[in-house]
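Pasting as-is:
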Amino acid sequence: MAILAIAMMLGLPSFNEWIQNAQIRTAAESLVSGLQQARSEAVRRNAHVIFIANGNGTPGVTGWQVILRNSGAVLQAQIDGQGSRNATVTPNNQQITFNGMGRVLERNPDGTNPITQIEVDNPKLSAEEKRNLRITINAGGEIRLCDPKVTDNSDPRSC
């Protein structure tokens, strides 16, 4: 029993690190899913569809909404903190609008610039332990999840 207890105590810090990094990935994948949903709905309906990120850098605020522009109808939404209560999401803007061809509008209906990048982080981990992720969206509507720590441009995980 003592050997088992010691082994568990030694493995607990790395398990906690793994859980915290999994929250980063969960939040990032949820955002990518919402962005892809918004883009595909815009193409399917041949209409402007808006993706709104709730993220403001506060832990657990990871939700989003997909809204049909002309009616304001919410097509899909993700509540904050679902599976990622310690993750922080920091978009460079709060929304992005896709047109009927899946491309990004230069300006959102409210006059703001569209989201081009979202940073997903977990402040509970040190810089060495965490595996932050970044989501980038280009003008053509391509949505990409990448790892800012990867510096080799030939690596598909690089930003």
